Amino acid sequence: MAEAAATFLLQKSDNWLSKELSLSDDVKVGIKRLNSELSMATAILKDLDAQREQSNQIQQWIRLLQGVTYEIEDVLDMRAYQISHQNTHWSIAVWSGIGNHSIGSLIKEIEANITSIKDMRTSNEKTVSPHPASTSSAHRESGIAPLYTPEGEIVGVEKQREELASWVLDLERAYKVMFVVGMGGSGKTALVKLVYDQLKTDFDCHVWLTASKSVSSEELLSIMLSKLCNKTAQHSVNPSQALQDLASTLNNYLQDKRYLIIFDDLWTTEVWDGVKYVLPRNNCSRVIITTRRGNIASSCRESWVDVHRIQALPLGKARELFRRRSIPQSGVFPSAKGQSLWVNKLLGKCEGLPLGIIEIGKVLSREKSESELKKLHDSLQVEVASGQLSSIGRLLLLSYDDLPYNLKCCFLYMSMFGEYYLVKRRTLIRLWIAEGFIPTTNGKQVEDIAEEYLQELIERNLMQAGELDFDGRPQTCRVHTLMHKIALSKSETEKFCTIWTNHRCEISEQTRRLSIQNTEFTMANKDMWHLRTLFACLNTKTAIRISSGFKLLKILHLDGASVDSFPNGIDELLLLKYLCLSNTRIKLIPSSIGRLQHLETLNLKHTFVTAVPNTLTKLAELRHLLICRYNFNGYLSFDAVIGFNVSTEISKLTNLQKLSFVRADHKLIRELTKMKELRKLGIIDLPSNSGPILCEAIQILKDLYSLNMTSLHREEVLHIQGIDNPPPLLQRLYLKGRLEKMPQWISKLHDLVRIRLKWSRLRQDNNPITILGELPSLLELQLLDAYKGDRLDFLVGRFPKLKILDFDQMEELTVIRIEHRALSCLQKLIISRCQNLGRIPLGIENVAQLKELRLGDMPRQFVEPIRRNGPMRREVEHIQKIHSTHLQNGTHCALDDLS
Q1: Confidence at residue 790, expressed as pLDDT on a 0 to 100 scale
Q2: Nearest 5 degrees, angle CA 85-CA 86-CA 91?
Q3: Which long-range contacts (CB under 8 A, 24 or more apart) does 375-381 make?
Q4: Which residues is 534 bridged to in the sheet?
Q5: What is the CA radius of gyration of the chain?
Q6: Strand ranges inside 392-465, DSSP E
Q7: Lowest mean pLDDT among 268-282, 492-506, 797-811, 836-850
Q8: pTM of the model
Q9: DSSP secondary structure string for all residues of 15-80
Q10: How many angstroms separate the CA atoms of 22 and 712, rounded?
């Protein structure tokens, strides 16, 4: 991680020099020299990273260089704080841990340290020879062990085995490739080996190839040809033949054959790209590739490519696998209450990962007492990293070691959260940006780059998506429990962050990030000038008093902390970039918040704040202003969203990207035209006469991708017909309030994926689906009291991509009809409070992709016929989930499972 820190500091020091903020000539020259040294250090760190496990000397160099990068960061941040401070002299209390030095003398000390490290490295280079990374043995383990696992010891893959074998034998297509994707230790190789051994004799020729991280496509082709030719005497192999000749020979050999080829443990797209064009696509041949890298599979767009993602073992199968591996003779599962409890907890940590279950089973193959089981459970992180379960750690580390350096720090950031914590995608992205992990590039928003980073980590199976949004993006994400142990261990050795739990940790001068998890921590009177990031995770009862020793803090994340008012001392954190006080009980923002000139994110969602001070408009770097609260009582009412008041000077925040939910007035709407960087806008309490200026403002905000507009009250009309050129990138549109007619400009929104019309009350001659059905990208449609007509017809060719359809409180609606082959992509249908709808939609039995039918407070005559043995049951028999809920005492507490 030191190389990532050094790269970030290079950007920061360049920024300082470009701004030329009150820097003396000596300081400028000093920073330039440090820049040069940092460039060299970064190059060295990248070279050493692959060797670091081989040499204590290399690890020592890295630690020393990391210390230097921290010293440079201190110098730059001290200067930044000094400039941000109202007076020009040093605040002695802040620097008590450093000493009362001038910035020039600090630079000289750092240069001396760098020279010392360079001399040390030069003198030791002759005695430290380069070695290949230690993970090579782990590669061998990961590839060999599953190949020799007896079939009887492979558990829980019966269905996946049947599906894969069926795919191999299916003769509909002349040529097919299957990527079998899963995290390390998930059983990819074992599954494919079962199918390979079962079916290989059905093919004219077959070969199993293990691809290591270092293998090239040329080497793989050579090995393939050699293995195939060893089975056929009429061909010979010339080891020196060129790649083109090699490819031609192999292609000619396979041309008239039906072949089965396995590429096990593929790591790079480049290797597959160099191999795939050699293989003839005929004769119903099959290729199966196992990989941890889902992004390799995702990059293949050909119609003949399929993807199978390995599923985790359910608890019952996990227990069965554990029995076979831990007690092979008797097969007796620990029966004592205490033993069984701790074994089940250990299995829970494995989360269905066969590798973890097998290795823990081996450790427990000899009888263990309850106290021994508890000890293993409590020390799992140490055991996985370097103890009895280190084989798990070595195999999982292969995925981490394969990451480019800029993604390693993004992954390690997950150690800041508890092991079962579901992190919101947007929260994580904003944190990464505030940390400086995401590079700035011309023409691309940092938020978009961060989204790509997250997707790559998920594709590489280092992170997992939690609940998915309607467009397939994760709303939340986490890491597998065993991978979380790896992150914690790496964070500890890399000094990436410190986790404070039950007071069992050491906070040193190199601690840059501190996460307080499920324990109390008093911040008062602590000198932590070295700290840059502070987390207090949910459910932590923390005494929040920010002392003067925290003044270099840049990230303060106090989501759900026990806070009633704005914590004292925050206005002294002049370098703060990210402040989250969401899910707290604060009501007021102090005017002194205007001092936080570097603030980029202010998250006050689900608090009681209803206004912001005028001084907030001084925060020129602010990108995300999130203030809202929901009054939820069963169903969301019209006035459920509680926004905030803001002065018209908000338009000074020209970098602002997200502004929601703000209360409207005419002056504010006019000022919105100056905020051309806005990407998400939520505006409430819109009066009818605001229509013309609102339409003008929306047309100017060309970068909007999310727009949420709510009228002053339920009967107030939203006059938004006057938009001729809507924002071309708009993806999400939420309209709440009366509409006299359906806005024609919506038909121009070709990128729109979600639209929600609430209380629109369109007349029968303004059927909304006439326009909405033509939208090519629409995935989700919600209509809540949006249409006064009695009938909706969904025709073939309309709504080509719609996945979610939601009707709520459509009181006049009596019939919904779905034409045969219409709504071909629909997966979820929700119908709530439509009291006059007499029956389920006509034609629902033809919507083949429909997986879920959810009913809310629907009348009995609607629900009863689709129960089992009901007269209309056959029409919904193909739907996997059918749920009906009824509102009782203000909440949905009555759930009726009709599946």
Answers
A1: 94
A2: 50
A3: 376/342, 376/346, 377/342, 377/345, 377/346, 377/349, 380/346, 380/349, 380/485, 381/485, 381/488, 381/489
A4: 514, 556
A5: 31
A6: 423-424, 464-465
A7: 492-506
A8: 0.88
A9: HHHHHT-S--HHHHHHHHHHHHHHHHHHHHHHHHHTTGGG-HHHHHHHHHHHHHHHHHHHHHHHHH
A10: 50
Structural element, H or E, at residue 668: helix 666-671
- Phi-psi label, residue 674: left if phi above 0, alpha if psi -120 to 50, beta otherwise: alpha
At 52 the pLDDT is 47
- What are the pLDDT digits (tens) for 633-686? 656 788 889 999 998 899 999 999 999 899 998 889 999 999 999 999 999 999
Where is average pLDDT lowest: 103-112, 296-305, 335-344, 355-364? 103-112
pLDDT digits (tens, 9 = 90+) for 268-302: 999 999 899 899 998 999 999 999 999 898 888 88
Compute φ and ψ for 600, nearest 5 degrees: -110, -30
**Tokens linked to 31:** 């920073």
Section 298-313 average pLDDT: 89
- Range 880-885 average pLDDT: 94
**Residue 238 predicted with pLDDT over 60:** no
Q: Which of 654, 570, 650, 582 is nearest to 615 (CA)?
A: 650
Phi, psi of 852 (to 5 degrees): -140, 130
Asked if the model's pLDDT at residue 469 lies above 70, the reply is yes
403-494 fold: Arc Repressor Mutant, subunit A (1.10.10)
Strands (E), 634-749: 635-642, 658-663, 680-686, 706-711, 732-736
d(CA 783, CA 690): 24
The strand pair at 259-266 and 423-424 is best described as: unpaired
Residue 298: burial class (beta carbons within 10 Å; 0-12, 13-18, 19+): middle
Beta bridge mates, 179? 289, 307
CA distances from 167 to 276, 430, 467, 634, 754 (A): 19, 42, 29, 46, 35
116 vs 273, higher pLDDT: 273
Q: Strand 175-181: give its sheet, edge to edge.
A: 205-210, 259-266, 285-291, 175-181, 305-309
Q: Tokens for 190? A: 């074992």
Which amino acid is residue 866, in one-letter code? I
Mean pLDDT on 375-394: 88
Distance, CA of 455 to CA of 398 (rounded, Å)? 19
- Is residue 18 over pLDDT 60? no
What are φ and ψ of residue 346, in 5° steps? -65, -40
Which residues are bridge partners to 315 per DSSP? none
Q: Which of 595, 542, 586 is nearest to 566 (CA)?
A: 586
For range 116-120, the mean pLDDT = 67
Separation of alpha carbons 535 and 557, rounded Å = 5
- In the numeric block, the tokens 């309309």 are attached to 798
What's the gap between Cα 739 and its chain centre?
Answer: 37
- pLDDT value for 880: 94
- Cα 211 from chain centroid (whole Å): 28
Task: Locate 260 and state its tokens.
Answer: 């089965």
The predicted-structure confidence for 415-445, as pLDDT tens digits, reads as follows 999 888 999 999 999 999 999 899 887 778 8
Q: Give the Cα separation of 27 and 400 in Å (integer).
A: 39
3-state helix, strand, coil in the chain (%, to 5): 40, 20, 40
Alpha carbon distance 437, 431 (integer Å):
9
Bridge-based pairing of strands 881-888 and 555-557 is unpaired
The residue count of the chain comes to: 899
Task: Report d(CA 286, CA 284) in Å as an integer.
Answer: 7
Of the options 2.102.10.10, 3.90.700.10, 3.40.50.300, 3.40.50.12780, the CATH number for the domain spanning 136-309: 3.40.50.300
- Average pLDDT (756-773) is 95
Q: Burial level of 132, CB count in 10 A (0-12/13-18/19+)?
A: exposed
